[in-house]
Design goal:
single chain; Rossmann fold; Glucose Oxidase, domain 1; 3 domains; 4-stranded parallel β-sheet; 21 helices; 38% helix
Length: 558
C-alpha cells in the first residue's frame, strides 16, 4: 500500500529521526500518531481585527475534523493586519505586504514541518489570497476555509457606513452626535466586512476556483454552518490525500476563468484582479489583465450587492449564497463544469443538487435583466496607463468622465483637500506615488473615495491612482495605473489643470497632452526618495512586480 505520508515520513520515520519524535511528544503526539498523515491547520487568528477574532475556534474544529478522519492535526498561526483599522494611515502600506508575508510563512511552516496536507483559514482581505497562494506553491492536499461574513450593524450599517459618515461630517450633513452613533453601532461582532467587498469577493472567487468546500464563501462567521464547514475541511484533506488530489489538479486555466466569471456576476472588488493574478502566478498558470476583458465581454453583472448596490452578504446567505448563481452560470455555459474541486468531485457535480433561489428575491437578477450586460471590472489602456489600469464601472457612474487633474503626492494630501472642500465638481483627483514600489504597498483609497461620496460628489468627481481601492469603494474610480509613478509612469507627469478623459466604453484612459510635452516632462522628472531604505517595506519595494502582474514578490526570482 502506498504511504500516504510522503512528507511527514521523511521527518518522523526511522531511528535517525528519534529526536524529531522526541520534540513532538510534548506537543501532544502519541506513538500511534507518527503513522498518521500530519495535517497542518494554518490559523490567521488574532485579536487585531474582528475579521479574525473568532478563527481560533474554527481552527480547533478543522483540527478535530482531521483527527477524527484519521490524521494528526497540528495548529499553527500566522499574522494578519486590518485594512479597516489601518486605512488612511502609514500602517496601510503593510496591508498588501502582509499577503506576501502570510503566504511565505504558511509555505515555510508546512514545508519545514513536513505536513502531508493542510487546512488554511482566512478571514480578511489579504490573508485569504495569501492562503490560496501558499496552497498553490506547496501543491500538497489542502482546503481553504473562509472565516465568514459579519452580521449587519444597526440599521444595516457596516464599516463603509462609518467612512462615508466621516465625509458627511466634513460636508456638514452628518452631526458629530450622529457620527459617534454610527461609529458605535456599525460593527456588531466577529466576521469580515459585510458587503461584496474584497473579503467576500475573494471567498467567492476561491470557492469558484475549487479550493474551498461548497458554500464556504456564504456563511456567517458566528454560525453552526461555519463551524461545520471548518470541521469538514479537516476531514476533506484526508480524502484528498487518499485520492492523491493536489492544488495542481484543481488550479487549471479554466478554474481561473470560473473565478473571474463568478467575481463579475457578483460585482466583486477590483482587488480580485490583483489577487487572482497573484494566485495564478503561484500556480504557474498564465493569466493577464486581458483575460479579464475577454471573459468580461460575455459575463453580466447580476448581484445587487454593496457597495454599489443595496444588499449585504448575510442577505445573500439567507437566500442560498453563491451556489444557485453558479448553477445558473453553468447552465448558461459561462462556467467550466468539469473542473476538479477539493470535494474530489467536479464543479458540475457539486452543483447538481443545488436548488434555485426562492421566487421573489431581488438580490440576484435574472440573466435576462442584468444590472450590467458585461463586466464592471474594466481594464483601461491609454497614454496614462500604457500597461493597464483597473476601473470599477458598475453602471451607476456612467461610462465617460472628463475632468481637470488635481494632483497629489500621496493619500494624505488628497484626503486633506477633500475634507477642506477644495475638490469641486469636474475634478479628477490624482493620487500618485502609492503603487507597489512607490507607496510602497499600494494603499487602498477607501478614505478619499468615501469622503468624496460623503460630500455628495460621487457622480461629479473621479479619482485615479497607482494605488488600489477597497472593495467598499464606489464611484468613478480607476486604480492600479501602470507603470506606477515611482517608476516614471505617465501618472507621475500629470500637472494640475491637465484634462483627463476616461472612456469605459472604449476602455481608454488618456490625458489631453501631446507626446512631445509628455516627453519634455519626463526629461525633467526625478524619482522621489524611497519611503523606506531598510526593513520589510524596503525589501518589498525592491522585489515587488507591477500591479498588472499581481504585485508579487517572487516574479523575477527564477
Amino acid at each position: 500500500m502506498t504511504d500516504k505520508r510522503p512528507y511527514s515520513s521523511l521527518v518522523v520515520d526511522g531511528v535517525q529521526h528519534a529526536p524529531a519524535r522526541a520534540m513532538l511528544y510534548p506537543t501532544g503526539f502519541k506513538e500511534a500518531d507518527f503513522a498518521k498523515p500530519q495535517i497542518g491547520v494554518a490559523s490567521t487568528w488574532s485579536m487585531v481585527t474582528p475579521c479574525n477574532m473568532h478563527i481560533n475556534a474554527l481552527a480547533e474544529a478543522a483540527a478535530l475534523g482531521a483527527d477524527e478522519a484519521g490524521g494528526k492535526s497540528v495548529v499553527f498561526n500566522t499574522i494578519t493586519v486590518s485594512d479597516g483599522i489601518s486605512m488612511g494611515t502609514p500602517g496601510m502600506r503593510y496591508s498588501l505586504v502582509s499577503r506576501e508575508v502570510i503566504a511565505d510563512s504558511i509555505e515555510t511552516v508546512v514545508a519545514a514541518q513536513g505536513f502531508d496536507g493542510f487546512v488554511a483559514i482566512g478571514g480578511c482581505d489579504k490573508n485569504m489570497p495569501a492562503c490560496a497562494m501558499a496552497m498553490a506553491r506547496l501543491d500538497r492536499p489542502s482546503v481553504f476555509v473562509y472565516g465568514g461574513t459579519i452580521q449587519p450593524g444597526k440599521e444595516r450599517r457596516d464599516i463603509i457606513s462609518v467612512f462615508e459618515a466621516v465625509g458627511g461630517f466634513a460636508a456638514g450633513t452628518v452631526s458629530e452626535l450622529k457620527l459617534k452613533e454610527v461609529e458605535a453601532t456599525a460593527i456588531p461582532g466577529p466576521g469580515s466586512c459585510g458587503g461584496m467587498y474584497t473579503a467576500n469577493t475573494m471567498a467567492s472567487a476561491i470557492e469558484a476556483l475549487g479550493l474551498s468546500l461548497p458554500n464556504s464563501s456564504a456563511q456567517e462567521a458566528v454560525s453552526e454552518n461555519k463551524r461545520r464547514d471548518s470541521y469538514n475541511a479537516g476531514a476533506a484533506v484526508l480524502n484528498l490525500i487518499e485520492r492523491g488530489i493536489r492544488p495542481s489538479d484543481i488550479l487549471c486555466r479554466e478554474a481561473f476563468e470560473n473565478a473571474i466569471t463568478t467575481v463579475i456576476a457578483l460585482e466583486g472588488s477590483t482587488n480580485a484582479v490583483l489577487h487572482l493574478l497573484a494566485i495564478a502566478h503561484s500556480a504557474g498558470i498564465p493569466l493577464t489583465l486581458d483575460d479579464f476583458s475577454r471573459i468580461g465581454a460575455r459575463v453580466p453583472v447580476l448581484a445587487d450587492m454593496r457597495p454599489a448596490g443595496q444588499y449585504a452578504m448575510s442577505e445573500l446567505i439567507a437566500i442560498g449564497g453563491i451556489q444557485p448563481l453558479m448553477k445558473t452560470l453553468l447552465a448558461e455555459g459561462l462556467l467550466h463544469g468539469d473542473c476538479m474541486t477539493v470535494t474530489g468531485r467536479t464543479l458540475a457535480e457539486n452543483l447538481a443538487e443545488v436548488a434555485p433561489y426562492p421566487s421573489g428575491q431581488k438580490i440576484i437578477r435574472p440573466l435576462s435583466d442584468p444590472i450590467k450586460p458585461d463586466s464592471h471590472l474594466v481594464i483601461l489602456y491609454g497614454n496614462l496607463a500604457p500597461t493597464g489600469a483597473v476601473a470599477k464601472i458598475t453602471g451607476h457612474e456612467g461610462l465617460h468622465f472628463e475632468g481637470t487633474a488635481r494632483c497629489f503626492h500621496g493619500e494624505e494630501a488628497a484626503m486633506q483637500a477633500i475634507m477642506d472642500g477644495r475638490i469641486q465638481k469636474g475634478d479628477v483627483v490624482v493620487v500618485r506615488y502609492e503603487g507597489p514600489k512607490g507607496g510602497p504597498g499600494m494603499r487602498e483609497m477607501l478614505s478619499p473615495t468615501s469622503a468624496i461620496n460623503g460630500r455628495g460628489l460621487s457622480k461629479d468627481v473621479a479619482l485615479i491612482t497607482d494605488g488600489r481601492f477597497s472593495g467598499g469603494s464606489h464611484g468613478f474610480v480607476i486604480g492600479h495605473v501602470t507603470p506606477e509613478a515611482f517608476e516614471g509612469g505617465p501618472i507621475a507627469l500629470l500637472e494640475d489643470g491637465d484634462r483627463i478623459v476616461v472612456d469605459a466604453a472604449r476602455r481608454e484612459i488618456n490625458v489631453k497632452v501631446s507626446d512631445a510635452e509628455l516627453a519634455a516632462r519626463r526629461a525633467r522628472w526625478k524619482a522621489p526618495e524611497p519611503y523606506a531604505r531598510t526593513g520589510t517595506l524596503a525589501k518589498y519595494a525592491r522585489l515587488v512586480s507591477s500591479a498588472s502582474e499581481g504585485a508579487v514578490t517572487d516574479k523575477y526570482l527564477n
